[in-house]
């Protein structure tokens, strides 16, 4: 018997969990029925929309939007502050419930789990999925989507079909009808950087990708191209629990001249950190360890790393530590290459405030998000730090190396 994989995804998790919690506390309202969002105080870093209700969506409110923008679209918007401890608890409770169906539960993010069944017939799988979905609703008062398939990739794709409160199958023999008809950007791991490249080749749907020239995709997008091509065919060779394969994200740059002063080195490190932190945020991850590497003109290498007191994806925090490390490490010999990398990664879906973080770093996180948004819209160099304005140094070093994805490819 082959394995059955299910992907369980809480619908509008933060909103659902808050609503369920309020109900438990006897609060006489259901924020899901109103035009509401989960979002923090305007002056803090939570001043963006973290989750929205169906009604809020009708006002064109989007996740990630600032609360100010959201209020403009809907003046009567109900803004409920986030409560991460509720989410963490709700997530654990859900996981424990899912474990009553199978011991093989893999947490994918705060509101997503994969389940594996090795003794379940395909014909019965959907029935069990419905039982789990309805069980969650009855027991906890919120809804989930469940996707059912032979592997994690397709289970996740199935779970992303019509929402909320739905179960879908997407077995390998169903991909033509269910996967290939989707726009190519709906395929897992096809990001906003890849979509236009594929569209330019006339690849608009997942089916187009599956039936495209493998060699062309492979030569153009390298390993990432090979990965998404295989995904388009529903091929996912990962084991059930080989999670967290992304060990580090980083960038290095060979410099055209020898760097002999600290100031220039710091500017280059900033440029490298900008890209590293951006990629980290793009992958929805935080890091705990930062490291710096130096290669001098005689190709002697040195590197140093440090464990931080907290997980972060903040450019400023990472940069500050990178500079300290560099200053400790550098022996003043002329530098030809500098590298920055971060490791000990975790998903950032839920980030808890911590006592080590200062006010400025919280503000900087908001800034990072705004900068990311502008860059996504107008290009990588549409916004650069002042220090780069009158220099020949590139403001953001390193691209998305082809063979190194900060994403989650092999988590699947
Ligand atoms: Mg969800």
Written account of the structure:
The structure is a single chain. By secondary structure, this protein is an alpha+beta fold. Among the domains are: 179-232, 5' to 3' exonuclease, C-terminal subdomain (DNA polymerase, domain 1); 248-411, 2-Layer Sandwich (Dna Ligase, domain 1), CATH 3.30.1490. The protein has 14 helices and twelve strands. The chain has helices at residues 13-24, 54-58, 67-73, 84-98, 122-140, 152-159, 175-178, 194-200, 206-210, 214-232, 262-282, 315-329, 359-378, 386-389; strands spanning 4-10, 36-39, 49-52, 78-80, 105-109, 112-117, 144-149, 167-169, 248-259, 285-296, 301-312, 335-347. Helix 11 packs across helix 12. The radius of gyration is 23 Å and the shape is globular. The chain starts with a strand and ends in a 23-residue tail after the last helix. It binds magnesium ion (MG).
- Strand runs, count: 12
**Number of DSSP helical runs:** 14
Helix content: 25-40%
- Assess the beta-strand content as a share of residues: 15-25%
Radius of gyration (CA) equals 23 Å
What series of H and E elements makes up the topology? EHEEHHEHEEHEHEHHHHEHEEHEHH
Distance between the termini: 21 Å
SS-derived structural category: alpha+beta
CATH-defined superfamily of one domain: DNA polymerase, Y-family, little finger domain
Largest sheet descriptor = 5 strands, mixed
Order of strands, main sheet, comes to: 5-6-1-7-8
Shape: globular
Low-confidence stretches: 350-355, 398-412
Which small molecules are bound?
Answer: magnesium ion
Provide the CATH topology of one domain.
Dna Ligase, domain 1
Mean pLDDT: 83
Q: Class of one domain in CATH? A: Alpha Beta
Secondary-structure arrangement, i.e. CATH architecture of one domain: 2-Layer Sandwich
């Amino acid at each position: 018997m082959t394995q059955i994989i299910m992907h369980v995804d809480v619908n509008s998790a933060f909103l659902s969990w808050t609503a369920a919690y309020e109900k438990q506390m006897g609060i006489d309202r259901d924020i899901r029925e109103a035009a509401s969002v989960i979002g923090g105080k305007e002056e803090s870093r939570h001043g963006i929309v973290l989750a929205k209700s169906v009604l809020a969506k009708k006002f064109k409110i989007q996740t990630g939007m600032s609360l100010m923008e959201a209020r403009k679209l809907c003046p009567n918007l109900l803004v409920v502050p986030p409560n991460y401890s509720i989410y963490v608890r709700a997530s654990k409770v859900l996981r424990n419930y899912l474990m009553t169906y199978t011991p093989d539960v893999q947490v994918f993010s705060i509101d997503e789990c994969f389940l594996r069944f090795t003794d379940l017939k395909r014909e019965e799988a959907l029935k069990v999925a419905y039982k789990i979905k309805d069980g969650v609703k009855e027991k906890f008062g919120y809804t989930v989507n469940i996707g059912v398939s032979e592997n994690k990739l397709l289970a996740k794709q199935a779970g992303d079909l019509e929402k909320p409160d739905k179960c879908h199958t997407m077995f390998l023999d169903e991909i033509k009808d269910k996967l290939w008809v989707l726009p190519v950007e709906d395929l897992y791991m096809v990001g906003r950087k890849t979509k236009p490249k594929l569209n330019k080749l006339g690849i608009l749907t997942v089916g187009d990708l599956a039936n495209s020239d493998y060699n062309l995709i492979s030569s153009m997008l390298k390993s990432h191209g090979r990965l998404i091509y295989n995904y388009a065919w529903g091929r996912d060779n990962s084991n059930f629990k080989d999670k967290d394969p992304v060990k580090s994200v980083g960038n290095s740059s060979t410099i055209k001249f020898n760097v002999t002063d600290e100031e220039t080195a710091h500017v280059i490190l900033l440029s490298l950190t900008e890209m590293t932190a951006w990629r980290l945020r793009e992958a929805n991850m935080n890091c705990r360890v930062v490291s710096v590497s130096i290669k001098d003109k005689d190709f002697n290498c040195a590197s140093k790393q440090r464990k931080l007191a907290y997980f972060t994806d903040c450019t400023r925090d990472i940069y500050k530590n990178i500079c300290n490390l560099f200053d400790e490490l550098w022996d003043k010999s002329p530098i030809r290459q500098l590298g920055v990398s971060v490791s000990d990664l975790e998903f950032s879906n839920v980030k808890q405030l911590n006592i080590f973080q200062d006010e400025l770093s919280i503000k900087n996180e908001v800034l990072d998000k705004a900068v990311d948004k502008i860059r996504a819209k107008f290009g990588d160099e549409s916004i650069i730090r002042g220090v780069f304005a009158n220099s020949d140094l590139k403001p953001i070093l390193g691209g998305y190396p082809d063979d190194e994805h900060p994403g989650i490819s092999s988590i699947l």
